[in-house]
UniProtKB/TrEMBL annotation:
It comes from Cyanobium gracile UHCC 0139. Substrate binds at residues 26, 47, 74-83, 138, 200, 209, 229-230. The keyword Lyase applies. The keyword Membrane does not apply. HAMAP family: OMPdecase_type1_B (MF_01200_B). One of its GO terms (molecular function) is orotidine-5'-phosphate decarboxylase activity. This is Orotidine 5'-phosphate decarboxylase.
Length: 250
């Protein structure tokens, strides 16, 4: 997509199933990440997370964009307002179209991050990225969540509160598990983006994910985009695994 075409409506649903899937490039170096990308030619979106960014830095984001891919920079910023703002400005200047921040950083930090991301993108002549507020990580199961964090409301209520906080601070999206999507979508209609990791095609290994759905279930529940990592990246044939996920959505 040409930079000039980018807008904050980047999260609107499309009819092309390949547009729904964001492949998590959880790899320890740029070479491995780029090899994975090359193995899945139909890819449109990739996610650069903590593992790859810590190893390969901004250069790998630039290279992915140079290859025509849309980048979700998933560094889950959680800090004081000035630091969140600076990080989001830099991420936006890199050309990331989706950027994660932790909702529990609070409204002042979220608003500062949103403003700085918009400014950073404009400085580069880019459309504004969509900031996604992480609610409750998909690796938490409700029992452990209550026991270890001593948070009283039900997990899905708490996730809804965090998403509402982010929306009130001016953000246009959130990350949640597919199990919370229907509830959050009722309160936060499109174009608010609800991006869901915790996606597992039927029969695949859930590994450390605790709140999961299949690709088709997540989209039916109201997800805007699906983040899928190991079910594709760990498959013997990643292109075939990606195609199977697309077929579920088509
Ligand atoms: O709540 C969250 C937020 C982010 N993630 C990230 O998504 C992918 C999921 O990978 P799988 O291999 O499909 O489990 C991974 O990069 C996480 O950092 C998440 O899982 N849950």
């Amino acid at each position: 997509m040409a930079d000039a075409e980018r807008t904050t409506t980047a999260m609107e649903p499309t009819l092309d199933p390949a547009e729904w899937i964001i492949l998590a490039l959880d790899r320890g170096d740029a070479e491995a990440a780029l090899a994975l990308v090359a193995a899945v030619p139909e890819l449109r979106w990739v996610k650069v997370g903590l593992e790859l960014f810590t190893a390969a830095g901004p250069a790998v984001v630039r290279e992915l964009r140079r290859r025509g891919l849309r980048v979700f920079l998933d560094l889950k910023f959680h800090d004081i307002p000035a630091t969140m703002a600076g990080a989001c400005r830099s991420a936006a200047r890199l050309g990331a179209e989706l950027i994660t921040v932790h909702a529990c950083a609070g409204s002042e930090a979220l608003a500062a991050a949103q403003a700085a991301a918009e400014e950073g993108a404009a400085e580069e002549g880019l459309g504004a990225p969509t900031l996604l507020a992480v609610t409750v990580l998909t690796s938490w199961d409700p029992d452990r969540f209550h026991r270890e964090l001593a948070i009283e409301p039900p997990l899905e209520t708490y996730a809804g509160q965090l998403a509402a906080l982010a929306a009130a601070a001016g953000l246009n999206g959130a990350v949640c598990s597919p199990l919370e999507v229907a509830r959050l979508r009722a309160a936060l209609p499109r174009p608010f983006a609800l991006v869901t990791p915790g996606i597992r095609p039927a029969g695949s290994d859930t590994a450390d994910q605790r709140r999961v759905m299949t690709p088709a279930e997540a989209v039916a529940a109201g997800a805007s985009r699906l983040v899928i990592g190991r079910p594709i990246s760990g498959a013997a044939d990643p292109a075939a695994a990606f195609a199977a996920c697309c077929a579920e959505l088509g």
